[in-house]
Predict the structure.
Amino acid sequence: MKYYLDEDLSPKIAEILKKHRIDAVSAHDVGMIQASDMDQLEYASSKGRCLVTRNRNDFIRLTVQFFNEHRPHAGILIIPHTLPCDNFSLIARAIIKYDSMDSGSINSYGIDFLKH
């Protein structure tokens, strides 16, 4: 699976994922800082990337909107607030574990919650 990390996650997480051969890019890497949530999801979807974020409520709402409007959507992976945002390696390890499992794929319009 290909991942796109929302700007609310450090680009260091994407760096760690890449070292583990996981296809991940950060909003920071592609110049999408301060883009709207809509723009973030449109970008991720246009690239066929699952959007990874801590911003649960807004992206759940946008997923419903994309579904209703028949817009492309490559899934959302929600990082829970129980994972400290400054513990980059812990978040990266959880994504690596998620990616290695059979559940490591999200259907279009799918929303999954990262477990740690």
In short: Residues 3-113 form one domain. The chain has a mean pLDDT of 94. Residues 55 and 78 are 7 Å apart (CA to CA).
